[in-house]
Amino acid sequence: MNRLFLARHAGDTSAAGGVRAVVLDDGPERGIRALEFRTGAGLNFDVLVDRALDLGTAEFRGDGFGWRSATGFRHPGLHDYADDDGLSIMRSFSGLLLTAGLDHTLFGAEVDASNYRYPPKETVKNGLHGRVGNIPARLHGYGERWEDDDTCVLWAEGEVRQAAIFGEHLRLTRRVEATVGTSEIRLIDVVRNAGFDPTPHMYLYHVNIGWPFLAEGARYELPLQETIWQTDSVAEQGVSNVVMPGPQKGFVEQVYEHVLKPDADGKARPRLVNEELGVFFELEYDTAQFPAFFQWLHLREGAYAVGFEPSTHHVQGAQAARDDGSMIWLGPGEERRYTTTFRVGTL
Q: Residue 32 in contact with residue 24, Cβ under 8 Å?
């Protein structure tokens, strides 16, 4: 298929694939703007404009791979960041991608705020995985673009502002792309300090795969160099992190920090393989941009998921990063760029 072929057979590119703007209209999701992507190669996914342009529902040839939890895609207006003693993100945790940041990731922490030079604000209290995932984006645009007669790119772009007076002013510009006729999603993120105070920056992608891609017998494949940390639940439960069991009664999450071997191009490509369905999911990320990686197993009945988590920081978190000098401090106008690919296919 090329541009001329499509023009001869259909009056609109959407006959082959496209992007459609919709608004979710029921329950806790009501009012969320979303963009429905169809690549024409069996890949369909939603970009949640009002949830930091994160990725929600995702399917390949009719089988879901983006995790669907009981929370649904809750409207950010219902979100209380201080709820549940810093674990409020658990009330809106669903979908293929939850972005964590922009100034904090990992477990909650109360840290020094003297960099903002406001005496009444001595500290900043952060909850699990930060604020950005529940901030609506300003949508710059979306649509289909022919790069040449053979390549049509579906795209969406917007900006997420995380800002406070006497606090951080960070802006995430996110571009999502998918080429018609292919089964991969490209994410291009730029995080910039739009303020005038040095500001901490931490960033993590919580990429979540659910049923039916995740099922008993599915394999979690890693280019593993070594495992440098794991939760106590690993030894207590003894559940494999390679061959997945079915849903487990009372399962306690198992989390690992791994060092992955990059290819010659500096990319790591962990994947989940389901031989029964004959499909795989693969995450491709730059290990220079994300030097840490977490494997998340949440195999409990009713909340059955596995996670791929490339991260700018190690498991010890915000205070440890400040103490050992590994915290990223963005100066005024300084920015970081992240390029990541989500790929599905058949075996």
A: yes
- DSSP secondary-structure letter at 115? G
CB contact at 8 A, 265 and 285: no
Structure-token pair, residue 26: 């029921």
What does the pLDDT look like over 57-84, one tens digit per residue? 999 999 999 999 999 999 999 999 999 9
Measured CA to CA, the distance from residue 186 to residue 227 in angstroms comes to: 28
The rounded distance, in Å, linking the Cα atoms of 80 and 161 is 17
DSSP per position, 54-107? EEEEEEETTEE-B---TT-S--GGG--TTGGGGTGGGGS--SSEEEEBSS--SS
pLDDT in tens, 309-339: 999 999 999 999 999 999 999 999 999 999 9
How would you classify the pairing of strands 169-179 and 151-163?
Answer: antiparallel
**Cβ pair 185, 210 in contact under 8 A:** no
Where do the structural domains in the chain lie, given as residue ranges? 3-346
**The domain defined by 3-346 carries CATH number 2.60.40.1180:** no
Nearest C-alpha neighbor of 203 from the set 96, 98, 92:
98
pTM over 0.85: yes
Residue with tokens 């596995």: 306
Give SS3 for 300.
Answer: strand
DSSP letter at 197?
A: S
Give the pair of three-digit tokens for residue 169: 């002013």
Contacts of 217 (CB under 8 A, 6+ apart): 243, 244, 274, 275, 276
